[in-house]
Amino acid sequence: MTLLGRGVAGIAAAVRSKEASAREVLAESLAAIEQLEGELHCFHTVMAERAEAAAAALDEKVARGEDPGLLAGVPVALKDNMCTKGTVTTCSSRILENWVPPYDATVVTRLRAAGAVVVGKTNLDEFAMGSSTENSAFGPTRNPWDTARVPGGSSGGSAAAVAAGMVPLAYGSDTGGSIRQPASLCGVVGVKPTYGLVSRYGLVAFASSLDQIGPFTLSVADSALGLEAVAGHDPADSTSIDRPATSYAGLLEEGVEGLRVGLIEDFVSEVSPSCAEAARAAAEALGAAGAKVEEVSIPEVLHGLPAYYVIAPAEASSNLARYDGVRYGLRVGGPDVAAMNARTRGAGFGKEVRRRVMVGTYALSAGYYDAYYGQAQRVRTLVVEAFARAYERFDVLVAPMTPSEAFRLGEKTANPLDMYVSDVCAVPSNLAGHPAVSVPFALGAEGLPVGVQVLAPALGEGLMYRAAAVLEQAAPPAARGPVRPGGERRA
Amino acid sequence: MERISLAEVRHVAQLARLQLSDEELAVLQGELSSLLDHVEAIVALPTEGVAPTAHPLPLSNVLRPDVPGPCLEQRDALAAAPEAAEGRFLVPRILGEAP
Amino acid sequence: MPEGFDLVVGLEVHCELSTATKLFCACPNAFGSEPNTNVCPVCLGLPGSLPVLNERAVEFAIRIGRALNCEVRPAVFHRKNYFYPDMPKDYQITQYDEPTNVDGFLELRDGSRVGIVRAHIEEDTGKSTHLGGSGRIHGADHSLIDYNRAGVPLVEIVSAPDITSAAQAREYVSELRAVLVATGASDGRMEEGSLRVDANVSVRPAGAAELGTRCEIKNLNSLRSLVRAIEHEAARQAALVSAGGVVRQETRHWDEEAGVTHPLRSKEEAYDYRYFPEPDLVPLVPDAELIERAEAAIGLMPAARRERLVALVGEGDSPGLADQVQTAIELSLDQLVLDAVAAGAEPRLALARAANEAAAKAEGARALSATAFAELLGLESAGTLSATQSKQVLAVLIDEGGAPAEIARRLGFEALEGGEVESIIDEVVAANTAEWERYLAGDEKVAGFLLGQVMKASKGRANGKIVAAALAKRRG
User: Fold this and answer.
1) Residue-range domain boundaries for chain C
2) Domain C418-475, CATH number (from 1.10.10.410, 3.40.50.20, 3.40.50.2000, 3.40.50.970)
3) Which whole number is the average pLDDT over C273-295?
4) Is the pLDDT of residue C268 over 50?
5) Which CATH number describes the domain made up of B6-43?
6) Residue A208 a catalytic site member
7) Predicted-assembly ipTM surpassing the 0.85 threshold
8) What's residue C418's pLDDT?
9) Which of A8, A330, B54, C455 is most buried, judged by most C-beta within 10 A?
């Protein structure tokens, strides 16, 4: 078995015990990237030299007998919207094509402190706006299960890199499904934590009240470690929850005996037969493991998508105002500063970003604020309250993750709304700030992986992981990565 | 009949400081209109007496002590500037004063 | 005010808070540093950076609110969206419909009250310098931007349109400045821009109930420009209305040199700030403990301090004395005067030196040892030092500290022996016989000239009072 094949916990144990060096692990990861990157295009930047220096430093730390950290020697990939000091951070946008941040995101600092070795920055839809990674200014990422298909998005590069076995752990950001949807399409585990659990400091903002960073892994246990390493209070983020970090690893064996599980039927009827079937089968599997399972209707969740497509663009229109050609990034000159701003932004932003900036600007503008933004915020309350009522009756909820299996490149680019619908089951969790995970659970009608979603109330990551671990056990191994490009299973 | 007029689209592009061609504006008019049609599903929902949720967390009073910390060096602050001079960011002339 | 019209003025005062750091980051809140050195990812608006609210700025804002009799309320920060290159994020974090302080008032010296609509917290912008052309914004080829000031905490104090004359506007700002300095939240320096005033001015036919259309006047950098600008703008509007015209609601710029207001170049786009709740910050809900702590830190308010000071120096009949009292209060130098008098200084002399010479270095003067100040005033009262010498010693004392007598010695201000003065007078008389004859004949106009010659010959060491007395004595 390769070192990478041991997963996050296995690698960290091997490096800690000196059975393997961080450099050996890294070499495997860099070789896999070298071999597969041409076909998949997961990365914008591979930081081989810096990673080698970090791995060597970690090995010395182990040699000195110091604690190498929770993620000792684990190669990690970061979505290219997390700031890395001294390494270009593009957000897949022409407007930040050459931008080198002078500071590290808190997650990056924490990962390094935990002994992880950052190997590169992964592809995404520009500024995390999209569900296929096709909105990248630097070309799409391909799904390793079928390279004619998308990996999902916006964190497609991170999802595909884990699915293809290039790295055992990668991080993405989830504003309206951008971790969970690509996790589902790529057959990996993807978690959107409770809003405020992981610091957003240094995550280039898309929609500030919705964005959360979370891990991609091949297994639920690895996910728990990957989340633990970056979670916890950060005084640099005012929206960070101030409470001690918890370890989830110990909870995974606890099972779901006696837990009350609700299957959200409103989503089941929104998705393809194989995705619906996967969700029902998942509910049954939890029932078989001792949970009390019931179907539940929460009709408000279907208001989530339209509310999301007002709130997220509104916040984005403001968050993206700073890309004006004055302080950093692209500048397209003009006779005066306003003309320079407009030319820079017109040329620097891709179509989807411009579309959302326009929608968001409109939704906040005089005369429309109350009808659109204000109304969306009130509908957000309805969604939050509906979840609160559901969680009086249930400990966790189960739902389909995506409406379909991975679609073909170009299939949904013509009509933006077709793409937006990909997120219908995902966005309510972002609106409520609740945690949710996508667990690979089945192969669909097209032979591609289908994820199932477990939702939990705020700070319910422990419950969420317990249910996810049971689903993982019940799922056919063929439904999850790693796979070689084309879908062949990796050793 | 589109939900949003071309003049409105042009006005919004101006507010958003986006220079777009007439062709791009026309495409956006269609896209924005169909998106607004989709959003119409919630515009009509009865929400009287419902408080807006701006934020998913019930936090308040997150404060930091008034203690100075490190700053960037001037050269690092200016490193990414498209143009700089005399330790400052250089921009083309500004028409109109700050509001 | 032009006859037949009433003037209505509301003032918006932006006050920089004297915190150690900026509103949302740990960069120093300092004036006069090298450009772009007090900056970090947050106040440069770098992608991914996030704001965290400064606790002391909040406390200062509440002090200001309570000193202005405001109600302190739970507040929500909003984003005010507009593009401007001195604003790093292209939105300003400010308070909008739920500000921290609302519904207060300020009582002026004459007992009139001006309502305070709100006093809210917001961040300052950077500063631009304009290159080429006139150096002003219009006609410049390029602008240079320094973000050191970006993110400095401000409280914007919005008055009700209760002010009815330019003089009352001046009085309002003067008294407000005294209150702000007394709270310890501001240094009140208008020259350095720590206090910036915009005036909303309108006129209406005398006695009319409805308000006229207002213009907002910007660039008022001193009390003098405030008064001149309001007077000019009132006259302009009145003339316009009298001639059958209508006032257009607009923002106008005060041109100090030309003494006129002119409309700001109209922008292509109308501003639409698209305010919405700042998702990177959480609500600010001051609890009773925080409000009490802020209240406890507020010093004695100007009215009470004025009373105290007047009791010491007397009412007087010259407007000069009242002005000196107000200056001392405005700059918080009254305590220095009180302490110096307690240490034996002559009250009016102490006030004069405080309100004139010390006021120029107010910040240092507030830290001045009252004993040293009293000692210096004692030397002046005794005639050991001339007024000019005393002022010079005071300047050094404020800057460097030390003992006044020692500083005087260092500056060579030891009083001349009586004989020395007489011999210098001898020399001056011999060199200026014609003037001396005219002086003896009773021509007072040459007295100053002769005095000046003696002072010059003594290289400033002679005491002017003693020389004048010696000259008068010789004339008999």
Assistant:
1) 5-295, 300-400, 418-475
2) 1.10.10.410
3) 96
4) no
5) 1.10.20
6) no
7) yes
8) 64
9) A8
